[in-house]
Design brief:
The protein is of the alpha/beta class and about 240 residues long. It has eight helices and eleven strands.
Length: about 240
Amino acid sequence: MTRVLFAVSGSAHWTLADGTRHPCGFWPEELAVPHEIFRDNGFDLVIATPGAVVPTADEAGFSPEMNGGSAEPGQRFRAYLESIASELGAPADLNEADPAEFDFVFVPGGHGPMEDLAASKEFGRLIAEFDAAGKPVAAVCHGPAALLPATGADGRWLFAGRRVTGFSNVEEGQVGFADKAPWLLEDRLVDGGGRFEKSAGAWEPHVVVCGNLYTGQNPASSAPLAERLAEALKPVETVH
């Protein structure tokens, strides 16, 4: 059975450039939708956070304003997260995860990863182990921030030179944080040497696959990214 390490931020805030704390966490759609797709494909899922902290969903992700003006998506995401409350309420410790026990790692976004995973040397080493084993490393929206602490033997960013995407500067500006953020994800990925790609229009689904690196640009990319991974990781049926 394909086993997934669901690496979720344990932070309930994001420290802005002026030092204030913006309440956040993981983005509901980016955890709920991939989780359901992986589960429906028969994958074994392990939710883990740094220190086994119970993760916090960003309430903004349930709002009609962040879901195309409709209340239905947020209600659906909340219902699904409630259905897996036992998993979310008792996460594994991400700092103790062994890549040998998993087939790939997936990082949902939200501003939470910008606070903790992006600065975690422990998680950077974990990502490097997955990459060295040729196992898929996947992240969506702000999730690619968690890839930043991963470095190669030469000290450079591990994913320098590879095609990658993530929440764009334009999208960050449209949600009102571009001028408040201590740094912008697109800028950091580019500065690290990533070959950043994005959709022609903001908020359009966009998935980039470069070898074993799978990234999605925004919340709308959650489903297509998870489907690409499910297709790549589903067991090969033997013909008798």
